[in-house]
Amino acid sequence: MVLSAAIQLALLDALRAAAAGNALTADELAGKIQAMDGVAVDRILRFLASFDVVKCSAETSPDNGAVLRRYTPAPVCRWLTRNNGEGSLAPFSVFMIDEDHLLTWYIHILPITTASLSR
């Protein structure tokens, strides 16, 4: 669901477009996509960084000593962003994790798996 949110917010597109070697903070990215909350954007990006969808580097702020995280796109972002008309897996990714799509699998697979476990 986090990947779907990042794709629908065009967060990965903004990161890839802006990061020609520049690492951006979550607040800078939130400003680019007109998001109200930089903290939520930071949480999304930290989650994606744990799966190497984006890269994260941390540094200490000279002002108050707080941790400042900067993000850059990982190579997999190429397949999840608009690539100048070259094609993208983003719509397919959103479809595959859509609740309506997954619900049909739960309806059909859950009775089979619970029946085989009860034997």
From TrEMBL:
<feature type="domain" description="O-methyltransferase dimerisation">
    <location>
        <begin position="1"/>
        <end position="82"/>
    </location>
</feature>
<dbReference type="GO" id="GO:0046983">
    <property type="term" value="F:protein dimerization activity"/>
</dbReference>
<feature type="signal peptide">
    <location>
        <begin position="1"/>
        <end position="20"/>
    </location>
</feature>
<dbReference type="GO" id="GO:0008168">
    <property type="term" value="F:methyltransferase activity"/>
</dbReference>
<dbReference type="InterPro" id="IPR012967">
    <property type="entry name" value="COMT_dimerisation"/>
</dbReference>
<dbReference type="InterPro" id="IPR016461">
    <property type="entry name" value="COMT-like"/>
</dbReference>
<protein>
    <recommendedName>
        <fullName>O-methyltransferase dimerisation domain-containing protein</fullName>
    </recommendedName>
</protein>
<dbReference type="Pfam" id="PF08100">
    <property type="entry name" value="Dimerisation"/>
</dbReference>
<dbReference type="InterPro" id="IPR036390">
    <property type="entry name" value="WH_DNA-bd_sf"/>
</dbReference>
<keyword id="KW-0732">Signal</keyword>
<dbReference type="InterPro" id="IPR036388">
    <property type="entry name" value="WH-like_DNA-bd_sf"/>
</dbReference>
